[in-house]
Specification:
Structural class: alpha/beta
CATH architecture of one domain: 3-Layer(aba) Sandwich
Shape: globular
CATH superfamily of one domain: NAD(P)-binding Rossmann-like Domain
Helix content: 40-55%
CATH class of one domain: Alpha Beta
Radius of gyration: 19 Å
Order of helices and strands: EHEEHEHEHEEHEEHEEHEHHHH
Strand content: 15-25%
CATH topology of one domain: Rossmann fold
Length: about 350
């Protein structure tokens, strides 16, 4: 268990951030939450709120002054290509600003939460672990992927120059306290409500946000300087997720299953539909590409060095849907248990 500290969390109002702050408060740490825009999620948490922007080093210095450790979770996630400039600014220059502010404020350690998307997924048939190369910074790769890889390179370069940091690479994060909700949280809700008439036969490696938080805390305490840890969970296709959601809701009808190649062809039409109806984009070209990712993602290093063990996948889906139900996102009296 980490001794009580003063810590700052960027991305505090996000899905991982809220879960991490609950865990930090349970550990009797003094928590400073970096708030950029929305702060409603923090209303009932006894944390200090500091307004800062990762693109403004001066505001970060204010947020980091006097703290022992910084947990950097803030980032720009996007499944729309036109967002690439903002994605790259926040995920690359933002990381460099975080490092500089940590140095200016003599922060003891930076815990940098990156993503599985920073790794080159190919070859898909080979197991992916921490030795897999990062994606190059080129236009052949998705803006989010190359920006997360470049952010990691900035952290690793700082480590070579004597900076203390560890890097975590979670896979697809799902779980409770998903207020906004996240992209997958919104997709899971749409499936559970029966709002999606079609599904695709792709899949991803999914990990419970609570397990990610435990991995983050373990790395903060025991991670070696400059080390990277993959926090993976379980690979599951979207059809399996729909079946588990139906078990929870009692819904009988499942969405029509489309081959992934058909969904990819139809993605531009879907984007047009989302634009006309002003709905949140779910099935985009980038999202379909992500569902072709590597099925064999190893968390052996994290298990060995951090005692990391992801919980059963069905438990995660049930707990997530139950949290959505209790918080008014999902209607109905559902009492299913895994």
């Amino acid at each position: 268990m980490i001794p009580s500290m003063i810590v700052t969390v960027t991305g505090a109002t996000g899905h991982v951030g809220i879960n991490l702050m609950h865990a930090l408060l349970e550990g009797s740490h003094t928590v400073r939450a970096v708030v950029h825009q929305n702060q409603s999620n923090l209303a009932n948490l006894p944390v200090e709120q500091v307004h800062a922007n990762v693109l403004d080093t001066h505001s970060l210095q204010t947020a980091f002054a006097g703290v022992d450790m910084v947990f950097h979770l803030a980032g720009r996630i996007s499944i729309i290509r036109k967002d690439h400039k903002l994605v790259e600014a926040i995920n690359i220059q933002g990381v460099k600003n975080i490092i500089q502010a940590c140095r200016d404020c003599d922060v003891r350690r930076l815990v940098h939460v990156s993503s599985i998307h920073a790794f080159n997924q190919i070859p898909l048939e080979n197991e992916l672990d921490e030795s897999r190369p990062l994606v190059p910074f080129d236009h052949k790769h998705m803006p989010y992927d190359r920006s997360k890889a470049e952010g990691e390179r900035a952290v690793l370069q700082a480590v070579e120059n004597g900076f203390d940091a560890v890097i975590l690479n979670p896979t697809g994060i799902i779980g409770p306290y998903d207020y906004q909700p996240s992209h997958f949280g919104a997709s899971l809700l749409a499936i559970a409500r029966g709002d999606i008439p079609v599904n695709v036969n792709g899949g991803f490696d999914w990990v419970d946000v609570r397990d990610v938080v435990q991995g983050i805390l373990a790395a903060a305490e025991n991670g070696k300087p400059g080390a990277k840890y993959l926090l993976s969970g379980h690979w599951a296709d979207m059809q399996t997720i729909a079946k588990i959601a139906n078990q929870f809701t009692g819904r009988k009808k499942s969405p029509l299953l489309l081959p992934l190649w058909v969904a990819k062809i139809g993605a531009p039409l879907a984007m047009g539909y989302y634009g006309i109806t002003r709905q949140r984009p779910l099935f985009t070209g980038i999202a379909m590409k992500a569902l072709e990712s590597n099925r064999k993602i190893s968390h052996a290093k994290a298990s060995r060095e951090l005692n990391y063990q992801p919980r059963p996948f069905q438990e995660t889906i049930y707990d997530t849907l139950e949290w959505f139900r209790q918080n008014g996102y999902l209607k109905g009296d559902m009492h299913a248990s895994p």
